[in-house]
Design goal:
Elements lengths: L1 H33 L6 H6 L1 H4 L3 E15 L2 E8 L2 E8 H4 L10 E2 L2 E9 L10 E11 L2 E2 L8 H10 L3 H5 L16
Parallel strand pairs: 3-6
Antiparallel strand pairs: 1-2, 1-5, 2-3, 4-7, 5-6
The structure holds zinc ion (ZN).
């Protein structure tokens, strides 16, 4: 039965082909997942020298205010009590709907971009320039009254305008404070 044999061979070839396609796809996904690496914000801030100038991924809650600067904007990203200022394009910023503050949880965001320990474009501050952002989970207005914890109280004070000082106790990362009026 030569017909059957050739069918089996063809079947095997097809299987091999499919397996190869899957392997290639898996490899591509893995390569994409490997670079850039995901780094906790606390680790990034603590080991800033090591990560300076690197392209990486961070995740955190968008908190405070979206501070517009021409066709860009700043947002503070908070993870485990440490925050970092992220420099976004207008288009990226428009994807953020909810910002964390007292009575509100902000959008959970993944940012891929370049980390700067002392950004030459932004007064030598520690920051991250986003190349791409992804909304992982939408924030929401909390229906249950949150316990007036330290961070919540800090956020409340922050909204009143004294961001860096009021956050100081609860958040060890450098936060980007709104500019004083007139600038
Ligand atoms: Zn910068």
């Amino acid at each position: 039965m030569p017909g059957l044999k050739s069918w089996i061979r063809r079947g095997m070839e097809m299987l091999l082909c499919v397996a190869l396609v899957f392997a290639t796809a898996a490899q591509a996904a893995r390569t994409e997942g490997d670079a850039p690496p995901s780094v906790p914000i606390a680790q990034l801030v603590a080991r800033a020298k090591e990560y300076d100038g690197k392209i990486l991924t961070v995740e955190g809650e968008a908190i405070g205010d979206l501070m517009k600067r021409g066709n860009h904007a700043w947002v503070n990203l908070l993870e485990d009590g440490v925050a970092i200022g992220v420099w976004l394009t207008e288009e990226q910023a428009s994807q953020i709907h909810e910002l964390g503050r007292y009575g509100n949880s902000g959008d959970l965001i993944q940012v891929r971009g370049t980390f700067h320990r002392a950004c030459p474009d932004h007064g030598g501050d520690l920051d991250m320039h986003a190349a791409a952002i992804q909304i992982l989970r939408r924030g929401s207005k909390k229906t249950v009254e949150a316990k007036p914890g330290r961070l919540a109280a800090s956020i409340g004070l922050c909204i009143l305008g004294d961001c860096s000082r009021s956050y100081g106790g609860a958040v060890s990362g450098k936060l980007r404070a709104p500019d004083p009026p007139g600038i």
